[in-house]
Amino acid sequence: MLNYILRRLLLVIPTLIGIMVVNFALVQFVPGGPVEQMIARLEGGGDVFSGFSGATNDAGAETAGQAESQYAGARGLPPEFIEELEREFGFDKPPLQRFVNMLWNYMRLDFGESYFRNISVIDLVLEKMPVSISLGLWSTLIAYLISIPLGVKKALRDGSKFDSWTSAVIIAAYAIPGFLFAILLLVLLAGGSYWQVFPLRGLTSENWEQMSLLGKIGDYFWHITLPIIASTISAFATLTLLTKNSFLDEIKKQYVMTARAKGLTENRVLYGHVFRNAMLIVIAGFPGVFISIFFSGSLIIETIFSLDGLGRLGFEAAVARDYPIVFGTLFIFGLMGLVVGIVSDIMYVLVDPRIDFEKREG
């Protein structure tokens, strides 16, 4: 197993470089880079993309006789200023040199500073991390705590009325878009049109620092209740049905009939043998499920509930072409995703020691 882990760790480096190469190459063809963004702000905060449709303004018409610039909307700015902007953002160097310098800095854990926020990327990520961890961790834990017992009970009562109506409920929950359910929760329980039970926005109250320890804990859970419910509603279906099907598959295997024939009690058979084997794929997939919710499921929820997390950070950085944040977070999260894949394999072995990845590779 140790050799397998070492091989997987060595593969992390070329895989991560490949991810960065593809994304860096794609960015070179995307209009509206950081220089254009800065020019748009200096010219009055207009939309940076308006220049690509051929639109002109009065200032542009007055300076039509000046030398053409490669940046739309920059005709009223001196070329020396544009060159200074390029040097500041590092665009005075060839793309290959910029990419190599970026990777060298990342290998030294130097992710640079945001172009427009005047703060380092690491500090910015750490600042937004609590929101995303709260949503990802609690949503995953609640989904597992509900889905596993429900899936087991559905498997034991397969074909019953309980199995039928619970299936209808979880499929209906899966079909409801998370953002639509979040809006419904706001309207019903956050003072929209009915009851003011939960706060409308934020992860904590303004006076959180003055609260006691128990008060801080209660305030924290009071604020994240609705976002977690909204982000978890569609996660039950997959986990519940996966648990049920895994249990049904194990129950039909020969070793279960043998255990029953030896006189073992039904609980001993189900929870001493079947449960461990059936839960292999469910429990071992926990890191992957958490990372999935942590990365991809938070943008809309964060926006609706006014939570300032990594989802909004990544979206705003992409729109603003804040490349240090875009590539810095891509590198960090890509590395985390690859490492979590290795952790998932280790989880498989811990849950079922009979699995040997080295023999499977050989």
From TrEMBL:
GO cellular component: plasma membrane
InterPro entries assigned: MetI-like, MetI-like_sf
This protein's UniProt keywords: Cell inner membrane, Cell membrane, Membrane, Transmembrane, Transmembrane helix, Transport
Keyword Membrane: yes
Pfam assignment, any one: BPD_transp_1
Membrane topology (UniProt): Multi-pass membrane protein
Main location: membrane
GO BP: microcin transport; transmembrane transport
Source organism superkingdom: Bacteria
Keyword ATP-binding: no
Location(s), subcellular: Cell inner membrane; Cell membrane
Protein name: Inner membrane ABC transporter permease protein YejB
Organism: Tritonibacter horizontis
Gene label: yejB
